[in-house]
Amino acid sequence: MQGKVVLITGGAKRVGAAICRRMHAAGANLMLHYRTSAGEARLLQSELNGTRADSVALIQADLLDLKTMPSLVEQTVQRFGRLDALVNNASSFYASPIGDITLAVWDDLMGTNLRAPLFLAQAAAPALRRSQGAIVNIADIHADRPLKNYVVYSVAKSGLVALTRSLARELAPEVRVNAVAPGPILWPDDATFDEVSRQRIISHTLLKREGTPDDVAKTVHFLVAEATYMTGETINVDGGRHIAI
After folding, report:
1. pTM score of the predicted model
2. For this structure, is 34 an active site residue?
3. What is the Cα 91 distance to its own chain's centre?
4. In the chain, which end has fewer C-beta atoms inside a 10 angstrom radius, N or C?
């Protein structure tokens, strides 16, 4: 990844920050996107630039605003001269049970999890074709096994997996497009899942433990830097939960 440039959405904290650290440690320069997490973004930028000067830039945008998509790519190329990989990590996650689904809920969950990755990939395609680059989408095991009461989120992530396959066909042979589907890695910051719920979910993994953000980050790095003959694939990083009964 030496000299390569990676645009990572939602990169300021949680799994996104782990992806940033892993890709940066491999030698990549980063355009770190954030929406509201300005403080976390600046701290991570300072940390990584302290290791390698001028290697991380920040860009703020609301991914629900489609007009910002070309600008994210343009500013990345202006800053670093190229774009080698796009990681669509930014996501909204909250319950949307039947009876409570509104158009606003639909627009937000579909917008961040499916629409934004599509339009950002479209904006990035010319630059990625020039660099023979890659796209990695962060999906979810609930794309295949819907999470109860999370109707719109599950549908959006299922669409993201389908988008991964479709983009792989559309952008081949120059650009590879793959996805990572995490299982129980990090719990939401709120109290959505209590301790009993968490232990029940963990018990349904084959490895009987939760993963770490770096488990996802290592897989993203593999898909970008090493999996040169893979495209259209979704890798589950879930301790075997997707095959557990």
Report:
1. 0.94
2. no
3. 7
4. C
